[in-house]
Amino acid sequence: MKTCREPIYKQQDVTIRQLGAPKVKSPLAFGRFVDEEDAVLVNISRKSAFKPKGRQKPPEQIYFEMAGPREKVYFDPSKAKCAIVTCGGLCPGLNDVIRAIVMTAHHQYNVPSVLGIQFGLAGFIPDEGYDVVELKPENVNQIHEFGGTMLGSSRGPQPVDQIVDALERMNISIVFLIGGDGTMRAAEKILAEVSKRNLSISIVGLPKTIDNDINFASPSFGFDTAVDKATEPFGARTWRPPVRRGA
I need a labelling partner for 182 at 20 to 30 A (CA). Which of 24, 32, 50, 59 fits? Predict the structure, then answer.
């Protein structure tokens, strides 16, 4: 019987590749910028920090870049165009993420255009016949009050070359892919094709899975709600003290 072994990661596995040196001053007028040199230690268990038995040296310490706004950015926000796509199964929080991206891009970064790709990666394929939606603050303002995703969703696979063709045609600067482990694998393939063509397109993956099966994203949004709903039938009834009535 095969046993599940903990994978061994190296720093290059978790290092975010850059399109180029960020030279454009961020338009953010307030808040604290994150230092590019700052990082977060990913593995802090004892076996990842000390030399295990039988090994010559302790495992390499793995660090993630700190999340948050930078003082300099690569794209000129006033000339950038973003795209958002939701893939895979539905879960709570999808509309919240769409809304947050649109509001942040519009109000804080002054991005002139955010496009919504309908029905997952299929929305990039011309033969599928899905329209692209222009996402503005006024049409996403209250979507967080509703479940699911206003863009619709679907599962793959779709031809990677056609997806990147569509990104080129629409002149997309940054694409946000919201989905589970399958979507993150698709994002990896899209990134490989973008790199192969030497295009200046940033691929951003936002892990969304009720299964909670994506490394280093624990837990992802949707997981807590799934667990709460799954355990409801087994929950104990709320006890209430008896009401004492007068004679």
Answer: 59
